[in-house]
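Table S4 entry, Synaptic vesicle 2-related protein.
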Amino acid sequence: NPCFCILRVVKFRRTGESSRSDEDVISGEHEIQIEGVRTELEPVELEDGAAVPKEFANPTDDTFMVEDAVEAIGFGKFQWKLSVITGLAWASNYAMEMMILSILAPQLHCEWRLPSWQVALLTSVVFVGMMSSSTLWGNISDQYGRKTGLKISVLWTLYYGILSGFAPVYSWILVLRGLVGFGIGGVPQSVTLYAEFLPMKARAKCILLIEVFWAIGTVFEVLLAVLVMPTLGWRWLLILSALPLLLFAVLCFWLPESARYDVLSGNQEKAIATLKRIATENGAPMPLGKLIISRQEDRGKMKDLFTPHFRWTTLLLWFIWFSNAFSYYGLVLLTTEFFQAGDVCSISSRRKEVKAKCSLTCEYLTEEDYTDLLWTTLSEFPGVLVTLWIIDRIGRKKTMALSFFVFSFCSLLLFLCVGRNVLTVLLFIARAFISGGFQAAYVYTPEVYPTATRALGLGTCSGMARVGALITPFIAQVMLESSVYLTLVVYSGCCLLAAVASCFLPIETKGRGLQESSHREWGQEMVGRGSHSPGVTRSNSGSQE
C-alpha cells in the first residue's frame, strides 16, 4: 500500500558566489519553503517488516552551513535586541566621543590659552590612538572572537574616558584622550558581530540604521554640552559622556559569540547552541542535519588581504575609508569654524584680527553656535534615509560614489561666499551625504571579506580612516588660517578621487551572502554533527556554493 503523510520540508538555497537556478529565478521563491503533502515516497523496510517513507529513515543525512541557518531562522526578536545593543555602542562609544572633539577644542583653546597647532593636536591624538589600535582590535576579534575584542575595547574606553575629565594640564589630557582613541578603535568590530547574525535581505538596511544611533549620540552630546558647559564645565562633560559606556559594558554579557567565528575556530557545539538560541528567541525552526565545520587556524593574517582576489579591493577600500573620515571629520571641525566666523568669506580676515589681538583673546561657543551645530548634526537622519533608499537599488559601489560626488559639489558651492543661512543648508546636505557614504562603506566592507579576515579587513580600513581623521585637523584648523579656498579644494578634490575609486571596486556585494572562508572549497577539515528539531527536515534541492 502506498504511504501517505504530511511532511514539512525546509529547503535551502545557498547564498554567496553561486547564482540562482533558472527555476528559482522564474518562480521567485524565498530561501525557505514549506511544502505540503508528498505522496508515493519510496518505502524503507524496518527490521519488523514495517514500511516507512525513505525521508524518515535518516533525517540528518543533509548538511547546512551557518549562512543557511541564519537565512532559515530569519530576522526576529533576537536581531531587534542585537540592533539596540549595537546601536548603543555606536552612540556612546563612537558618536559621543567623536562629537566631543568639536566642542572641547574651542573651550580648551580659551581656557588654557592654546595655540592653534596644540588645539589641532588635541583632536589628532584621538585619531592616532584609533589608527594604532584598529588593526590590533581586528586581529584580536579574528583570533579570539568578536565579543572578546568588543568587551575589552569598551571597558578600556570607559576607564580612560572618565580619567580624562580629571586631567590637570594639557600634556595629561593629550595622553588620556589618545588612550580613549585607542579604545574607540575597537568599536567597528560591533558591526562585524552584528552583520554576521543578519540575513542577507536585512543586512544593508540594518547596518545603515545603526547610523540613526550615531545621529542620536551626536545630538545627545550637543544637548548635553548645552546643559553642562555653562554650569559644570568641560570636565563634567567628559565624565558624563563616558557613563553610557557602562550600560553597554553590562549588556555585553548578553551578547553571544558569532556562530560564524565559532565554526571557523572549530567550536561546533557552541555554534549550534548559539543558532538554537536565536531560533528559540525568533520562534523559528532550527534545521536538522549536520552543521559543516571548516576549521581554519590561520585567521586574521594581513597577507590574506593582499591575495590576488582581494589586493585591489583592499587598496581601493583603504583610500575610500581614508577619504570618508578625512572629509567627515573635516566638515565637523569646519562647521564650528564657519559658524564662529558668520560666513565663509570673512573667516580669513577674522583669523587675522584674532591674531593681532592679545593672545588671551578667544571666542567661546555661543548658544547660536550650539543651535547651528545641532541642526547640522540632525542632517545625519536624512542622510540615512537617502542611503537606505538607494543602496539596494543602485548597489553599494554607486551609493558610495554618489555620496562623495554630492559632498564635493557642496564644498565647491561654498566658494560663492554664501551667508549664514545658505551656509547651514550646504553644510547640512554635505554632512548628510558624507555620513551616508560612510555607512555604505560599513555595509560593503564586512560583505566583501570572508569570515577568516572580516574583522581584520574592517579593522585595517578603520585604521586608514583614522589616518584621514588624524590629518584633517591640520587642514580644517591650521590651513584654514592661510586660505579658506585651498582648504575647500583639498576636501573637494579628495572626495572626487574617492568617487572614482568607488566605481573601480572589482566586487559588488549587493544580493551576495557573507563568505565563510577565503578558500573556494570547504575541504580543509569538515566535521558534521546532527542538531535535532522535531518535525523539521532539510531537503537537498538548494543550489550549492
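Confidence is low (pLDDT under 50) at residues 1-60, 352-360, 519-545.
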